[in-house]
Amino acid sequence: MTIKFLKKQKEFSDIMKDYQKK
After folding, report:
1. How confident is the model at residue 20, as a pLDDT?
2. Distance between CA atoms of 14 and 2, rounded to whole angstroms?
């Protein structure tokens, strides 16, 4: 697993959290 992958994973989960707030 690369750091790049983990960063993408984090960005994705942040986006999902934002999406669920609406």
Report:
1. 93
2. 19
**Buried-state track 1-22, b at ≥16 Cβ within 10 A, e below 16:** eeeeeeeeeeeeeeeeeeeeee
Residue 17 CA to residue 2 CA, distance in Å, equals: 23
* Cα torsion through 9, 13, 14, 15, rounded to 10: 100
C-alpha distances in angstroms, 3 versus 12, 14, 19, 20, 21? 14, 16, 24, 26, 27
Q: Enter the pTM of the model.
A: 0.47
